[in-house]
Amino acid sequence: MTALVTGATGFAGAHLMEALRQSGEAEAYGTSLSGSADGHIRQTDLTDYDAVVALLDELRPETIFHLAAFASPALSFKEPVVAVTSTLAMQINLFQACLALRIKPRIVVVSSGQIYGMSDAARLPLDESTPLDLPSPYAVAKVGQENLVSMYAKLGVESVIARPFNHIGPGQQPGYLVADLTKQIADLERDGGGVLRVGNLSSKRDFTDVRDVVRAYIQLAAKGTIGEVYNVCTGRSRSGQEILDLLLTASDAQIRTEPDPARMRPADVPDLRGDATKIRLDAGWVPEIPLEQTLSDTLAYWRSR
């Protein structure tokens, strides 16, 4: 089987490429804007329709994992037009290319649990039928992706939608809570301690190890129902303060915290916790890696840098 991973050099994309290679069940190719020395990573601008057609015509993939998109909810407030238009353009080009080439790959489109937004606490945990409440331009783009799946299904494009909640782990770059905290702690350990700058630590999120998340994508490609939406989550939310406490316990450095206004988001969802019943029943997926192990591995990643 030939599989294509868009956004293959991103955080989740790189882990997905590795998981596909380790499985031995797929010849995995990926796209990246910057290119790579790896012959299986193709430098491709997915907003360029002709480039997308050429790539799909060459590879003729049986499965596509569409991860490429504007990646940061926080940065989407600074670049809302780019966040929405680039994300939708990439997916439209991908779907249009499939139609033009008359190929019918099974596509896993990656949305986000952030689209549930400011949901009432009484509705937690959030299942796939929960009404949406969009808190950011990033979330608007993700709902647009889901709507494109519905529209193109009428034209014969076969897709499954994954709604991952917050995923964390080794390789995630700064700009996200766990990556920011672990990198700062590793840096402070090298300096003998100091000040750890933090944003809002009261918000609670449903954190899943990225290695579990990409395993969910693979299982959805194999077993998910076409046209359906699946939460990818643990069913338990943890506050930023809980995460910080676990990380500080794992460090011997003398570290104190200070609030950093630059790390505060204009709109921050108080609690986001999903219900993963549907993906468990349909695809047989359950998360396996404990949060403590994920945090330990992520801290080790930054300590080695």
Sequence of strands across the biggest β-sheet: 3-2-1-4-5-6-11
| Gap between N and C termini | 35 Å
Q: Give the overall form.
A: globular
User: What's the average pLDDT?
Assistant: 95
How many H/I helices? 10
Oligomer: single chain
Low-confidence stretches: none
Helix content: 40-55%
Please report the total strand number as a whole number. Answer: 14
The percentage of residues in β strands lies in 15-25%
Based on helices, strands and strand pairing, what is the structural class?
alpha/beta
**Main pleated sheet:** 7 strands, parallel
From the alpha carbons, calculate the radius of gyration and give it in angstroms: 19 Å
- What is the string of helix and strand elements? EHEEHEHHEHEEHEEEHEEHEEHH
Protein name: GDP-mannose 4,6-dehydratase
Pfam family, one: GDP_Man_Dehyd
InterPro entries: NAD(P)-bd_dom, NAD(P)-bd_dom_sf
Domain NAD(P)-binding: 4-297
What does this structure look like?
Residues 4-297 form the NAD(P)-binding domain. It holds the Pfam family GDP_Man_Dehyd. This is GDP-mannose 4,6-dehydratase. The protein has 305 residues and is an alpha/beta fold. It contains 10 helices and 14 strands. The chain has helices at residues 11-23, 49-59, 73-76, 80-101, 137-153, 177-191, 210-223, 240-249, 277-283, 291-303, and strands at 2-6, 27-32, 41-43, 63-66, 106-110, 159-164, 167-168, 194-198, 204-205, 208-209, 229-232, 238-239, 255-259, 271-272. The strands form 4 sheets. Strands 3-2-1-4-5-6-11 form a 7-stranded parallel β-sheet, sandwiched between helices. A 3-stranded mixed β-sheet has the order 12-9-14. Strands 7-10 form a two-stranded parallel sheet. α4 (80-101) packs parallel to α5 (137-153). The chain is globular. The mean pLDDT is 95.
